[in-house]
Specification:
- By secondary structure, this protein is of the alpha+beta class.
- It is 22% helix and 38% strand.
- The strands form 3 sheets. A 5-stranded mixed sheet has the order 4-1-7-6-10, with helices on both faces. Strands 3-2-9 form a 3-stranded antiparallel sheet. It has a two-stranded antiparallel sheet with strand order 5-8.
- Strand 6 and strand 7 form a beta hairpin.
- Helix 2 packs antiparallel against helix 3.
- The protein starts with 7 loop residues before the first strand and ends in a 6-residue tail after the last strand.
């Protein structure tokens, strides 16, 4: 089966603090809580995109290399997302053009705040399974 629309590739960084909490952002465009991330630009590597997206959306520079914890496909939006567990190297969490709010969230809070498709990414990163998990969703729920 072919489609005229190609897939996009995105990255997301689950920044974990020393208390085991994950940094979530509340997006300005839709109000949803999720880990910081976005689509790779044409000329950048995956680590460059990861570092850029986390910095743009949180004000935090992450340490590289980061640990790949999952690969997720949005079956509706045709987006393949690579999710990494990250450590903060520098910076102070702050909102920006794309970020309405930031919050350090426990496992329980992640499940309360984020849609299932995004909560599972954070929970998988907190668990840091090896090899990384591979999952599919429809943009909201796992399929």
């Amino acid at each position: 089966m072919s489609t005229d629309r190609p897939h996009s590739v995105s990255v997301a960084g689950v920044v974990v603090d020393d208390q085991g909490r994950a940094l979530l952002i509340q997006r300005r465009d839709n109000g949803h809580w999720e880990p910081p991330g976005g689509i790779l630009e044409r000329e950048e590597t995956i680590p460059e995109a990861l570092q850029r997206e986390v910095l743009e959306e949180t004000g935090i520079k992450i340490a590289l290399p980061a640990t790949l914890t999952g690969v997720y496909k949005n079956m509706t939006g045709l987006i393949v997302s690579l999710v990494f567990r990250c450590e903060a190297a520098d910076g102070t969490p702050m909102t920006g053009d794309e970020t309405r709010a930031l919050r350090w969230a426990t496992r329980e809070e992640v499940s309360e705040l984020a849609d299932e498709a995004y909560a599972i990414r954070v929970l998988d990163a907190l668990d840091a399974m090896s090899p990384p998990v591979i999952r599919a969703h429809d943009g909201v729920k796992l399929v």
